[in-house]
Design brief:
Helix content: 40-55%
CATH architecture of the domain at 4-170: Alpha-Beta Complex
Radius of gyration: 17 Å
Largest sheet: 6 strands, mixed
CATH topology of the domain at 4-170: 2-enoyl-CoA Hydratase, Chain A, domain 1
Shape: globular
Order of helices and strands: EEHEEHEEHEEHHEHEHHH
Structural class: alpha/beta
Strand content: 15-25%
Length: about 240
């Protein structure tokens, strides 16, 4: 069974995360499948832009704790989205958590339904949003980023728009795709290079340090307790 469903319509290729049994968690196989699908889009001259969306009620629950990708593989996927010479439009209709927000941060445009919600839940299992900071911190309003990095609270679409995570409502999808179809491939490629330049500078400057931080946190005793508690559906030992 494919973890990524692909459909094309008038130059727009839609890649759908299709692993609803684990809420589209970022497993090693899903990350590989998405990277392969994006590579195919990048090479296809008939693809003007990519829509990244999901089946089920969750865009992505974040890292699959049972079969996680290597941190370098996930960094490579995030950078691949940022560097893809075609615009990527993320579409969320439901929940997005942790690493799923990193995917959205890598997208050029993000649309979300009013009923969607988001959370950076890493601190609640003993780690931190390390690698996904590469795509999130250059785009998020700093005070909002601090609150949600530190608390792991859920927040809705209105706040996600105010802090810079979400561009607009899902009702904007058709007008945006119409605009992308009207644009030239060269124009889109070069315009995207302009708006992603600062994000790519962050990758060059900080990716290795953040990979090492992520690896050390996930190997820690606190993270083992946090992940075990999460899988056992109980509070971790540090819960007050």
């Amino acid at each position: 069974m494919s973890l990524i469903q692909t459909a094309s319509d008038r130059g727009i290729t839609t890649l759908t995360l299709d692993s609803p049994a684990n809420r589209n968690a970022l497993s090693a196989p899903l990350v590989t499948a998405l990277a392969d699908a994006l590579a195919a889009c990048g090479k296809d001259p008939g693809v003007r832009a990519v829509v990244l969306t999901h089946t089920g009620g969750t865009f992505s629950a974040g890292a699959d704790l049972k079969a996680p990708p290597g941190p370098y593989a996930f960094v490579d996927l995030l950078r691949q989205i940022v560097e893809l010479p075609k615009p990527v439009v993320g579409v969320v209709d439901g929940h997005a958590r942790a690493g799923g927000l990193g995917l959205l941060g890598a997208c050029d445009v993000v649309l979300a339904s009013e009923g969607s919600d988001f959370a950076l839940t890493e601190v609640r299992i003993g780690v931190a949003p390390a690698v996904i900071s590469l795509t999130l911190l250059p785009k998020l309003e700093p005070r909002a980023a601090a609150r949600h990095y530190l608390t792991g609270e859920r927040f809705g679409t209105a706040e996600a728009r105010a802090m810079g995570l979400v561009t607009g409502p899902t009702a904007d999808l058709d007008p945006i795709l119409d605009g992308l179809r009207r644009a030239s491939p060269q124009g889109l490629r070069e315009a995207k290079r302009l708006v992603t330049a600062r994000v790519l500078e962050t990758f060059e400057r900080e990716a290795e340090e953040l990979v090492q931080l992520s690896a050390s946190l996930f190997a820690s005793a606190e993270a083992r307790e946090g992940m075990t508690a999460f899988l056992e559906r109980r509070d971790p030992a540090w819960r007050l």
